[in-house]
Amino acid sequence: MAVDMSGEERVAAPIEEVWAALNDPETLKACIPGCETLERGDDDTLSAVVSLKIGPIKARFNGAVALSNIDPPRGYTISGEGKGGIAGFAKGGADVSLTEAGPETTLLAYTARAEVGGKIAQLGSRLIQSTSKKLAAEFFSRLNQRISSG
Hints:
The chain is α+β, with helices and mostly antiparallel strands. The protein is built from 3 helices and 7 strands. It has a single domain (about 1-150), classed as 2-Layer Sandwich (Alpha-D-Glucose-1,6-Bisphosphate, Chain A, domain 4). The protein is globular, with a radius of gyration of 15 Å. This is Carbon monoxide dehydrogenase subunit G.
């Protein structure tokens, strides 16, 4: 089952700062809901462990994240896949673009797609969609707060 979502955040920081944050494993770890570990592998890959509760199912996903279409400081594509044991799997990606929206303001826009399978997919599309959108909004909101206050 797939979920498509998109959104944007106005970040009170120059585009270079936002770009740096999007490429910093510590920042990403702090912003990804349920993220336990996030470590840089090769140049453009990261490995992660994320624990999430979706409806009645709590799952711990082990996965890999890759960055592609890298165009500093304008954006990239981030994609990943995680396996949650008997709970199932989740995979997805997002195109993230940055645009200067003023001297100290950056507009961060994203278009994302998530797919889930296994037990999680049996929870129903409304729950999966609302949870996916909530998690995406939470990530970008945390990122915004962290950059703006940093």
